[in-house]
Amino acid sequence: MASIGRATALLASGTLVSRVLGFGRQWLLLQAIGGTGLIADAFATANQAPNTIYAIISQGVLNAVLIPQLVRAAKHRDGGQAYVNKLVTLGMVVFAFLTTAATLLSPQLMSLLGVHNPRVFDIAVAFALWSMPQVFFYGLYSLLGEVLNARNSFGPFTWAPVLNNIISIASLALFLVLYGPLPVRTVGDWPTLKIFILAGGSTIGIVAQAVVLFAFWRRVGLRFRFDFRWRGMELRTVGKAAGWTFAMLLCSQLAGIYQTRIANSASGPHQAGPQGITTTWLIFMLPYSIIAVSVVTAYFTRMSEHARDQDFGAFRRDYSAAVRQIVLLISISAAVLIVTAFSFSRVFTLDYVPYGFVLIGFLIGLVPSVVGFVSLRALYSLGDTRSPFVYTLIQSLLVVIGLTVCLSLPVDIRAVGIAVTVSIAGTVQTVLSMVFLRRRLHGLELRAVGQSIAQGFVAAAVATVLGYLTLFGVDHLGGHAGFATASKLTAIVAMIIVGVVMLAAYVLVLRAFRTPELMDAWGRLRRRVGRSQRAE
């Protein structure tokens, strides 16, 4: 468990730094092109296109298939060196093909994603052309990072996005210096250089994020050489597993494309269109990536090893431990973000009201989504890619049905409907994922998991009530309502005060329950403090 703890801490710290910089990048972006309007939504749509393609690569074939394959390859006489070189070479060829196809089809992709306004269509295509090379380098980053993760070198993969964000921030700063901060950009003032600095700067950051990972290969005993001799890689076995995963991701990404189309139907001034969805999703992903991804990435390799060794008792224990740790941390995160949703949104944009409601819509599904993420990676560890396809197909159908209903909603609440739809469908998906995993393992240690979820819910509910009372008091500082959203600074102050009160209440309730995960963490902290005092 010590190695898991160190790996989780390393992943969480890198992700935290990256996310903080990511928020800085998003804040600069909204100052440059605005939080709402045609230009903001066109850029959000164009920048989302390579992410959609990347999701099929990263969440699909790489995460589902490569970690188990790489763990097995490490047992080869050469430590997996030959297999890794063949795999990376093959990946580069596939990524290059996908990138070329996506670039050539940029106009069609923009139409597919719902950009139909002739005033902004050409600019959206130009944004997309500069953004599409990200497909290759996103894929390369995931592939190189998974190789390092499989050898228990977690740091580089987590810290590389920091470099990406630094470069992106620099390009946005240059944009603001040259063109000034304007809340809304007009359609007619976008020469090539301006488009390149905005979209091309983002792409350069992704390039650096991927290429820098090569520098860490020698630390894990690897040296890359192109190897096109793919015979003997068991590609038929890999392809069978990847086939289900590809089908699963195709379902979810088709639903995602439909979601972007519906969001574009609500595009306009003071409406939470694609840019609003993107920004609130970034906030939603803050605890998700820092906590869930960090914990699960550290456990995933170990669960793959347990599956390889047929040690399903240890597998169930690791799954249960991962879920309980995540639920403990995510419950309070979701509660704090819900209470401070409008203040958090105010930090980014003056259109904080529509942003805040969309954020709450996403956050109601945060806890189920992270539990589903653990279950998904557990199934992947077992080499099961068929089950995720089945329950993701059901989830995607629910999303499509819900989004179709959203079309009948008024434009000003359509984005909220999208967020709630995603949360409801994701909750159903999580329940189904646990059912499939329980069948596969012939049981799960669900009593401890259920107890952690119940205790976390009660503690978060108490913290939420106190949080709203605190927010009401903070909002009336100065004798009248509005302090919590009066400015970026007052919004941050309100968030800090409310967050501290809610965290204290949450911890006190969990201590009263004597929640094992909290007591273990408290014991480790006391021992560490005791050692520090003795050292002095």
Automatic annotation (TrEMBL):
Membrane topology: Multi-pass membrane protein
Transmembrane helix as UniProt keyword: yes
Principal location class: membrane
UniProt-listed Pfam families: MurJ
UniProt subcellular location: Cell membrane
Cross-referenced InterPro entries: Lipid_II_flippase_MurJ/MviN, MurJ
Coiled coil (UniProt feature): none
Transmembrane domains' residue ranges: 53-71, 83-103, 123-141, 162-182, 194-217, 238-258, 278-300, 321-344, 356-376, 388-410, 416-437, 449-469, 489-509
Keywords: Cell membrane, Cell shape, Membrane, Peptidoglycan synthesis, Transmembrane, Transmembrane helix
PANTHER family, alphabetized: LIPID II FLIPPASE MURJ
Protein name: Lipid II flippase MurJ
Organism: Gryllotalpicola koreensis
Lineage per the UniProt record: Bacteria, Bacillati, Actinomycetota, Actinomycetes, Micrococcales
